[in-house]
Design goal:
It is globular, with a radius of gyration of 27 Å. It has 23 helices and 18 strands. The longest helix has 31 residues.
């Protein structure tokens, strides 16, 4: 039997929006919703703007920077971007035409992203000299790359930037790891405390699971959060977004024509030449992708785009960003794609084929399909690629992201690498599902109705676990019986602002995803929801009290499990032909179905495997024989109770004893009670071994 997804793509995530137009409307100062929200915090010294691609972060920074220069006494603004191509986002803007009191202007000599030469130490000397001249001038704004900024601080010292605004775009490139140079320099700037910082990112997490900022530094930032849900729901045109994976067998070029629709505006990202999926011949790969679109005709002499004749008589314009053999031709293609006169011309280009380009900061509003071949090691990179397809544009009602993943071949003896790729793709789709979902506000049962929330036809009811929605803010209020509430301002902030980051750490844990998806028979849900998520929270927020750590853990697992269970409820309703709600109400209907059937409490949530819905999708998307082989390979890994896990199980056992007046029974029929008892026994063995080792060491020393 052939792989079922050689016939169709299974979307793992699908969101439909209300397309209210709210996120694209401007106020009297020319600010959209997110920009207005950010501007209201312009007086803060340290600002962190977490907002999706296309929400207007660049212009939000312009408004804030101009206020700091004109009204807050700062000398200059330095805007720092990860790569030169993004520098164009901070070019001159006539803001006064739309109601603001002045314009954003960057003199040509101070936009160092336009200066020739790549950012490496030899070339950077001239750019660092330009930064030095700017700091000594009376001009107000400079734009440079992260690399130039790093070199400038190394050369000039952090004190050279005193009394200036430093704005870091794509802030997820920074890391709290001491080896991250930009992260170390930012720490020095924060410790000196003589600059203002604005950090902007569409994905406040890193692909390598390192923290972006140390907790003490992060606490100094005022956070402005604008969610994907708010952004997409407020669009005028875009109504739905699908995210899915397509498993293929054999060379990927043979599967491309199954998912590459010539009628959709598409960005295709081919795999790196060192990737397992690569054919090690990028020119051939591009040619085969173009062949899947139609018959090659010629090259447009003005733009450098390939012209492809399709079977239905159209001519497609294809931009090849992979071929770097001719610098002049590549420059022509890039110039044509960046041509501001063509930004609103839907017919300018039809397909872009790229390798390392056209990701973060790349602005092609007409993109309807982001097709990525091969897994990406960084969840951040996948979020950025999806962002290419989520721009709002006239007539564009639907967009999609498809990840082409090599299915582990049934005849392979070793499937570890293929399984790892697959786990990355599934983790990415689950993360995006969480990112795209509305923000939850969880409270214990019977805390009362919240202003602005609609609790359905019957209204708020005491004694029930209520669910309310605020259409204006895109928030859901969900009551959970037995929920631990945070006791400090920082823990409360984390529960409101940082749950996606906690869930990301959970999904980046390979053991968690492996066991949760493919070894469900041998893995208790509580091992995932309590032990693994608990460990992640403790390591991420060591400064919080035990009660606040438990509150964060419960909020994070509730956000993930309620989204997943709502998705299952919707799928079940659809399969039975019943109405599961339309547009942006579908998820709410799913949440209500789940809550009303179960009467929600935290113990119930902890007893749900967070990967149930993902497995249901995977079972449809994969060949059954391959799926069984993957399950067998994961289950074959022997997992003993580690000392850390034994310690945590012992803590849970003590909590069990306090609630029930007895310790867990190792012969109990309840699997979780039995597991806690096994943890207590294992922890006792670890302690006995440590004591024996210590005694032997003392006798040897004696």
């Amino acid at each position: 039997m052939t792989n079922p997804t050689n016939n169709y793509t299974v979307p793992s995530v699908s969101i439909s929006t209300a397309h209210t137009g709210a996120s694209t409307r401007s106020n009297e100062l020319g600010m959209r919703t997110m920009q207005e929200r950010a501007y209201s915090k312009r007086g803060e010294q340290y600002l962190l703007i977490k907002s999706p691609p296309a929400s207007g972060k660049s212009r939000a920074l312009m408004f804030i920077a101009l206020d700091k220069l004109h009204n807050q006494g700062l000398q200059q603004a330095v805007v720092v971007v990860p790569e030169r191509s993004i520098g164009s986002s901070f070019a001159d803007e006539p803001l006064s035409q739309f109601g603001f009191y002045c314009d954003w202007q960057v003199a040509p000599e101070w936009n160092l992203c336009n200066a020739p030469g790549i950012d490496e130490p030899r070339v950077a000397k001239s750019k660092v000299e330009a930064v030095r001249k700017f700091l000594g001038s009376t001009d107000k704004t400079l734009v440079c790359t992260h690399a130039t900024f790093r070199f400038a601080i190394d050369e000039l010292g952090i004190e050279a930037f005193d009394n200036r605004l430093i704005a870091i775009d794509e802030f997820h490139h920074v890391s709290a790891n001491p080896d991250n140079r930009l992260g170390s320099q930012l720490s020095a700037l924060i410790n000196r405390d003589k600059v203002h910082l604005v950090a902007m990112t569409g994905s406040y997490f890193r692909g390598d699971s390192e923290a972006v900022l140390a907790p003490a530094e992060e606490a100094k930032f005022e956070t402005i959060t604008y969610t994907y849900y708010e952004q997409l729901n407020g669009y005028r045109w875009l109504k739905s977004l699908d995210i899915g994976y397509f498993f293929y067998t054999g060379p990927y070029v043979n599967a491309v024509n199954k998912v590459l629709d010539p009628t959709l505006k598409t960005i295709v990202h081919i795999p790196n030449v060192n990737a397992r999926e690569s054919l090690k011949d990028k020119e051939r790969e591009v040619n085969e992708i173009m062949s899947a679109l139609g018959d090659w005709h010629s090259v447009d002499p003005v733009t450098g785009f390939h012209l492809i004749n399709t079977k239905d008589g159209r001519t497609l314009k294809v931009a090849d960003l992979v071929d770097d053999s001719d610098a002049a031709r590549r420059s022509k293609v890039l110039g044509a794609l960046k041509d501001p006169a063509q930004k609103h011309n839907r017919d300018h280009v039809d397909v872009i084929i790229a390798l390392g380009m056209a990701k973060e900061g790349f602005d092609w509003i007409w993109c309807e399909h982001a097709l990525t071949i091969g897994y990406r090691s960084s969840l951040t990179e996948i979020v950025q690629i999806i962002g290419r397809a989520t721009r709002d544009a006239e007539g564009k009602e639907r967009s999609r992201f498809t990840n082409l993943i090599a299915e582990p071949a049934a005849e392979q003896a070793a499937v570890a690498e293929a399984v790892n790729d697959m786990l990355k793709a599934i983790s990415a789709s689950l993360l995006m599902e969480q990112v795209l979902a509305p923000r939850y506000e969880f409270t214990p049962k019977d805390t009362g109705a919240k202003e602005g929330f609609d609790y359905g036809p019957s209204g708020y009811q005491l004694g029930r676990t209520n669910v309310g929605v605020n259409e204006g803010t895109g928030q859901y209020h969900v009551e959970i019986n037995g929920l631990t509430t945070p006791t400090t301002a920082e823990a409360t902030r984390i529960c409101k602002e940082d749950l996606n980051e906690v869930v990301t750490s959970f999904l980046q844990n390979k053991t968690v995803v492996e066991r949760g998806l493919f070894d469900k028979e041998n893995t208790l849900p509580e091992e995932l929801t309590q032990l693994h998520m608990g460990k992640i929270v403790r390591e991420r927020y060591p400064e919080l009290s035990v009660i606040d750590q438990e509150a964060v853990r419960q909020h994070a697992i509730a956000a993930m499990n309620i989204t997943q269970q709502a998705k299952l409820a919707i799928a079940h309703a659809d399969a039975n032909g019943s109405d599961s709600g339309q547009g942006s109400t579908a998820l709410l209907v799913g949440v209500r179905k789940f809550v009303n059937v179960r009467e929600l409490d935290i113990d119930l949530i902890d007893r749900i495997n967070p990967f149930d819905a993902a497995y249901a999708v995977l079972a449809k998307a994969m060949d059954e024989k391959s799926l069984r082989q993957v399950q067998a390979s994961i289950a074959a890994k022997k997992v003993s109770i580690s000392e850390d896990e034994a310690r945590e199980l012992s803590k849970r056992a003590l909590q069990f004893k306090n609630e029930r007046g007895r310790l867990p029974d190792i012969n109990s029929a309840d699997a979780w009670e039995k597991r806690m008892a096994e943890g207590v026994a294992a922890f006792a063995r670890y302690r006995a071994q440590a004591k024996a080792a210590q005694g032997q060491g003392e006798s040897e020393n004696g």
